[in-house]
Design goal:
By secondary structure, the protein is α+β, with helices and mostly antiparallel strands. Strands 9-8-4-10-11-14-13-12 form an 8-stranded mixed sheet, with helices on both faces. Strands 1-15-16 form a 3-stranded antiparallel sheet, with no helix packed on it. It is 39% helix and 16% strand. The termini are far apart.
């Protein structure tokens, strides 16, 4: 037992020392916010005529995003920056942060959205310079090239106390039911619509609002080739009609890939598909799976031209229905039709005019990646609403969305190697929460990172890359 505890024999404790800082890597996030023009833009968006606050409101909101990206969950976690005065300088108090968030209403949210879009345009130009283009969305053994993929999905945020708009959810919990849009190419949070807990999964107006705001967040030159993906719970006739209208523009292509319900007409159509029509399903590496385990086929012709006439009358003429079947895994929940048939079916609808049903099915499957975005988003402020007031919680969601963007920009602009795909928890442990010293000399401050820290070089390179980012040109 003595040998096991020998490591602590000579330990003692003393409160002393100066210029020691924690959360060193969080400085990179703050630098990115400043150098990208985000902080200055937020300052202008939140400025009020005749009111000059001690702490600039744009600086306060940007700092709130940094604290959330660093792992903060409540307003008082702003002390993480405030307690590191040697590094971050003067930082607002908790009551000032509360007031700053409370001042953000509908008008301010629209202004902030425009600032985020303008900042994103500059950041994407930097990403293009560093990587040769915006990262393509991967699908099986290929990618979607220049297509920008917007993935929309809803989430549940549990409330453990009385909050405005908190209500019972479809899963029997109590809280909120936000609708979110994410860019699959970069992992950025495009928009979050905070809704009451009882909001529907396929509310047309909410989906159109979120889609409109998400497209507005993209730089104009990247809105010409879009793919919108939604799961079956969020699919609706109104959403399909809206995307079809967007696709009518001659200067852009807007495709959709949405989940489709397995109803009576679809079950009848499946029974009429001849065996040779079933093609192989591609796995994640692009290799065909055993036809006895999974298959894919197109239902459009059978539904449109079957014995019962056009079963899709009223839907856009370019809409196609693809069906995937798979041998169910143990414990899978099946319908009576699937239990009798021995296959589990999943359907999707799309307006992409290719005859390759195999590719269309493989392209839809990565919609599941939005679940990872939502999960990491919940680890970055979107999983806990800190106030009982809805306006503060909406402002908090705005800050959390900016925090998600800052982490994405950190990976794309300042990191190399495995850290470019690291999740927030990993980034916080390896980089953001690192302790260091600040050395003063020659009218400069120098961050001295311990050489024994395994990721010291990566952190140093990250901070230097952030400091080297060029600011946006004034237009």
């Amino acid at each position: 037992m003595g040998e096991l505890s020998s490591w602590s024999k000579d330990l003692t404790v003393e409160i002393a020392g100066q210029d020691v800082i924690n959360h060193t890597g969080a400085a990179a996030l703050r630098i990115i916010a400043d150098r990208s023009g985000l902080t200055g833009g937020l300052s202008r968006a939140l400025a009020r005529c005749g009111f000059v606050p001690v702490h600039d409101r744009g600086r306060v909101l940007a700092d709130a995003a940094v604290l959330i990206a660093d792992g903060g969950r409540v307003l008082s976690d702003l002390a993480m920056l405030r307690d590191q005065g040697e590094l971050f300088g003067p930082v607002a108090s908790d009551p000032t942060l509360w007031r700053a968030l409370n001042e953000i209403g509908d008008t301010q949210r629209r202004r902030i959205a425009r600032v985020r879009a303008k900042t994103r345009e500059h950041v994407w130009s930097l990403i293009t310079q560093r990587h040769g283009g915006i990262p393509p969305s991967p699908v099986a053994d290929r990618d979607l090239g220049k297509t920008i993929v917007i993935r929309i999905d809803a989430s549940l945020v549990t409330a453990h106390s009385e909050k405005q708009l908190a209500a019972g959810t479809y899963k029997g919990t109590f809280g909120h039911h936000p609708l979110e849009a994410w860019c699959d190419n970069t992992g950025e949070s495009l928009t979050v619509l905070l809704r009451k807990g009882s909001a529907g999964s396929n509310t047309v107006s909410d989906h159109i609002t979120v889609l409109t705001e998400a497209i507005a967040q993209l730089p104009a030159r990247y809105r010409r080739d879009l793919l919108i993906t939604v799961d079956g719970a969020g699919a609706s006739h109104g959403l399909v009609d809206h995307i079809t209208a967007l696709n009518a523009s001659p200067w852009r292509t807007v495709h959709y890939s949405i989940g489709w319900e397995l109803g009576a007409r679809e079950r009848a159509a499946i029974t009429r598909i001849p065996a040779p029509a079933w093609g192989a399903v591609l796995d994640t590496e692009g290799n065909p799976r055993d036809p006895g385990e999974a298959g894919v086929a197109e239902l459009t012709a059978v539904l449109r031209q079957g014995p019962g006439g056009d079963q899709l009358a009223g839907w856009p003429q370019d809409m196609r229905i693809i069906v995937r079947r798979e041998k169910p895994h143990p414990g899978a929940q099946l319908s009576l039709f699937e239990e009798a048939d021995g296959w589990r079916y999943q359907l999707l609808a799309t307006n992409t005019p290719t005859n390759n049903a195999q590719f269309l099915e493989a392209r839809h499957r990565p919609h599941a990646r939005v679940e990872d975005s939502i999960r990491t988003g919940k680890q970055t402020g979107l999983g806990h609403l800190p106030s009982s007031a809805i306006e503060i919680n909406r402002a908090w969601c705005l800050a959390a969305g900016i925090a998600c963007d800052l982490l994405c920009w950190l990976r794309l602009l300042c990191l190399d190697g495995p850290l470019t795909t690291a999740e927030p928890k990993t980034l916080r442990y390896r980089l953001l929460h690192t302790a260091a010293r600040i050395i003063h000399g020659q009218r400069k401050r120098k961050i001295r990172i311990p050489a024994t820290w395994p990721w010291a070089q990566q952190l140093a390179d990250c901070l230097l890359a952030a400091l080297a980012l060029p600011p946006p040109t004034q237009r």
